[in-house]
Amino acid sequence: MPAFNRDGYRLTPLAGFSIEARVLSRKDYRSGRESELSPTDLALGWGRMSEDAVLSQLQISQSGRWYHYRWRDSPPLPPTEMVRNSANMHMIPADRSVARALNAVGKDSRVRIDGWLVEAQSGDGWRWRSSLSRDDSGNGACELVYVCALTTH
Fold first, then answer.
1. β 143-152/110-121 pair status
2. What is the pLDDT of residue 123?
3. How far is CA 39 from CA 17, 28, 134, in A?
């Protein structure tokens, strides 16, 4: 897919994206430049990070466009597995239909998301780039997803 303009930003697709996951948490944003493109972040889990037995041992939260999890005593999974099987994802809805579907998603929803991992740029040099790795964590590790289709099941 070639680069395209959206709401004053240039979006460059970096890789096709498709996932089936459980929504661990959802956070909406109304301020800050990023919210112009991505009004919603979804913390998603897949594999064992979508299982009730694991999630019941974690405290999950989102703030400042970050996703956090904590546990008591010992982690329910090896921390490297938690990193590889969950992520905070910044959602850019492709159209109003996708925006409506995204608005209906809540914690514990099971979703399928199809689209593109992208880099967003503006004329003044501002840039926001998706991670392309599932082994990263911390600053820059979130996925920036241009969502073409979102379904719940």
1. antiparallel
2. 94
3. 19, 6, 23
- pLDDT tens, residue by residue, 91-101: 999 999 999 99
Q: Which two tokens stand for residue 75?
A: 């982690």
Pairing of strands 110-121, 127-129: antiparallel
> CA-to-CA distance for 57 and 16, rounded, in angstroms?
33
Q: Closest by alpha carbon to 134, among 89, 92, 94, 102?
A: 89
Structural domain range at position 105 = 4-152
Q: Which residues does the chain have with pLDDT short of 50?
A: none
In contact, 87 and 143? CB cutoff 8 Å: yes
Total count of domains within the chain: 1
